[in-house]
Design brief:
Elements: H1 4-15, H2 22-29, H3 33-43, E1 49-61, H4 67-77, E2 81-87, H5 89-94, H6 96-105, E3 108-116, E4 119-127, E5 133-143, E6 146-156, E7 162-175
Antiparallel strand pairs: 1-2, 1-7, 3-4, 4-5, 5-6, 6-7
């Protein structure tokens, strides 16, 4: 199994998120969706600039796999990683729409998404073309210049093999784009 889909989905959440929470869906049915949609958009307004996203794996469990193979997989997946990206003024102005586009590319849907007062609590599912599914939950904090997200995910591949992974994703503004 590959880890890029899981990290990609969770990194996107660290930079922002999309969709409506169950609370938003209920409110939409009662006519209050515009205010909640606007609140969600405001919740993830990032400042333009250069950002670093770091992923630190806390725990990896691979049930049913031979011990030697499991240890090799854990060693590979447990390596911390980071990447840098530029959030342009145009991209920042689009707000949550950019995140919706990124999540759609990863074939991701939110089961729950709640963001208020600098905290986020979400549950989502992503599917890939190689028959891999990631079900994840994320909780954390955010500001216009970054976020810290504790994410837990179960990746299931062909044949029903599952990998459980827990990690912390930290995104921080580190300056202006070059």
């Amino acid at each position: 199994m590959r880890k890029p889909i899981a990290f990609s989905c969770l990194a996107v959440l660290a930079l922002g998120a999309c969709g409506k929470s169950a609370t938003e869906e209920k409110t939409a049915a009662s006519g209050g969706s515009q205010a909640l949609e606007k609140a969600a958009e405001m919740a993830f307004q990032m400042q333009p600039g250069k950002y670093r996203t770091s992923v630190a794996v806390q725990k990896v469990e691979i049930p049913g796999m031979p011990a030697k193979v499991a240890e090799q997989m854990k060693a590979m997946m447990s390596k911390s990683s980071s990447s840098e990206s530029c959030v342009t003024a145009d991209r920042a102005a689009k707000g949550i729409e950019v995140m919706k586009e990124q999540m759609a590319k990863g074939q991701c849907t939110f089961d729950r998404f709640e963001a208020f007062g600098g905290t986020v609590d979400a549950s989502f599912t992503c599917k890939s073309g190689d028959q891999m599914t990631v079900k994840a939950t994320s909780k954390g904090t955010y500001t216009p210049t970054g976020s810290v997200i504790q994410a837990t995910g179960d990746m299931t591949g062909p044949g029903g093999k599952t990998i459980h992974i827990e990690h912390i994703i930290t995104t921080e503004r580190i300056g202006d784009c070059a």
